[in-house]
Q: What sequence folds into this?
């Protein structure tokens, strides 16, 4: 019951129009009807010749079938669920949702828009929303209900003015889950402490010089 068979046509069929597609489909079904009818008697063959009355999709040519599928399980979440974007007030000012949520619009249009709580937004956002029209925010999608057109998100932080290098770079790194925090002291202790550091002649002798 989860498999739905639909009509499918390629670019060549599209160029000739829908009428050409229909005529081709009728001709192919008639050929199939004749082939299957030859195994029976003359009455059965005459019935099949009347037109495209075959309801069994297995008798249709593969070029007219489109196989569809249904997602049943998510093995691995590849996206970080974090996105960079802007916050806006909801359009319907009289709704109950307007008093509780704002709309987060991601810069990447592949990511869905999300409702975010007004408690996560800046304190003066409701009274001065125009001040934040060009401020980038990081939002993480936490849920998406089946009966809602928009996901539910949580604002993580404000990045700064859109178009500037540092906020834009931090947003990209956060979206792709890149750790750009400072190195811990344990990692820094592995580096040479006496600066400036140069490679010793003995070490150079053991290396291949690719400079």
A:
């Amino acid at each position: 019951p989860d498999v739905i068979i639909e009509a499918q046509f390629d670019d060549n069929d599209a160029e000739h129009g829908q009428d050409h597609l229909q005529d081709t489909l009728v001709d192919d079904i008639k050929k199939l009807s004749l082939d299957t009818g030859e195994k029976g008697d003359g009455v059965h063959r005459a019935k099949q010749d009347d037109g495209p009355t075959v309801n069994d999709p297995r008798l249709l040519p593969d070029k007219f079938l489109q196989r569809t599928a249904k997602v049943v399980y998510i093995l691995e979440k590849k996206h970080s669920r974090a996105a960079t974007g802007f916050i806006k007030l909801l359009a319907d000012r009289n709704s109950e949702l307007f008093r509780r949520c704002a709309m987060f619009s991601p810069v990447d249009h592949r990511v869905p828009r999300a409702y975010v709580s007004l408690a996560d937004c800046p304190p003066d956002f409701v009274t001065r929303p125009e001040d934040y029209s060009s401020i980038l925010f990081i939002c993480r999608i936490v849920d998406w209900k089946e009966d809602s057109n928009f996901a539910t998100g949580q604002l993580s932080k404000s990045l700064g003015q859109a178009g500037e290098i540092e906020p834009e770079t931090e947003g990209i790194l956060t979206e792709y889950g890149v750790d750009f925090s400072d190195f811990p002291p344990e990692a820094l202790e592995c580096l040479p402490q006496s600066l400036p550091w140069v490679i010793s002649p003995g070490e150079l002798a053991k290396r291949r010089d690719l400079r």
User: Anything to note?
Assistant: Helices lie at 11-37, 42-48, 165-175, 185-188, 201-205. Strands lie at 82-88, 101-106, 114-117, 135-143, 151-161. The first helix runs from residue 11 to 37. The first strand starts at residue 82 and ends at 88.
